[in-house]
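input
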Amino acid sequence: MEYLAVELLTSIFSLACTDGGRTACSLSLVCKHIREVARPFRFNIVALTGGAPHKLQAFFNDLERESNTSRAGARVRHLFLHTDLSKARTQSGGPGRPHKNAKESETIILEQYYKVVLSILRAVAPHLETLVLLPYPYTDMLREISFPFLRDLTLQTNDRHLDIGPTDGSPAYPSLRRLHLLSGGFNVDLWAHHSPSLTHLRISNFSDGVYLNGLTRLHDPEGPLPELEKIIIHPVPPPPARWCHGVPLVRYRAMIPALWVSQVSKRVSAYILPPNVEKREYTRYIQDHRREWGDAIEGRLPGCWDVSEGYRARGRFENDITPPQYLTPWAKRTPEA
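output
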């Protein structure tokens, strides 16, 4: 390998270093020559999963050191960031510095996460192309940060209170094409302003009927997000019948037909998936999102954007707005002639 041209090695390493940074770091241990060739790829694709604040701080220190010493700088193009708050309660003290109290305040832990994650996001924002944040409990962290080249974003947060974008009012994600929100809401005015080039929208765990008006506006020819091509909505399963005397269930049964009516046979192709009643383990949940993120980077599979045409919101005949049975199994059906 030491006899191959640098240009050829660079091409090979660019194809090999797609696993979140492990391959690039391993190549750096081969020899000084290979280390220098592989150096730009160490931070090209980064996956940080379940790390405590002190581990995230260690990564940021390495990133900052590389940016200051390398001629090309450390450019992170793809970032998967998962913060495991439950694990952090026992790890945030760092090696050799255990907690004084096993039940240390969650507020202190969140402050530690906030500081280091904010530093990482500010450092990678200028060159980032794909970003996954799981979970995302800080509704104001993305404020004053612009991602000019970001094209894919997966976010788990409370969209109703989300505060994003630079203070000058310019769009925060001018190049964003695909947006996946995992916490059930969609503020159409907020995202229409900050991601005007959006073509694909997916809302998982949809549960709040207050967003129906905004989703309906997406189909207006003169409405927001004129480049939108595909909408995928995945509702939460119905609540238990005995919960709060059945009131949430009554609201749910009213929301699902209204959701269907808002999307059926409209300008943008809309798909409404059946509620996912199967509960995945949290570890598998994170692994699935990481796999889909990796597939999107390498262009192998459409991942969560690949849905069956059987779930497309369209009537059986013209002007038919009756929801399908997979969404409303409780509804009585009129036998077809």
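quick obs: Residues 92-98 have pLDDT under 50 and may be disordered.
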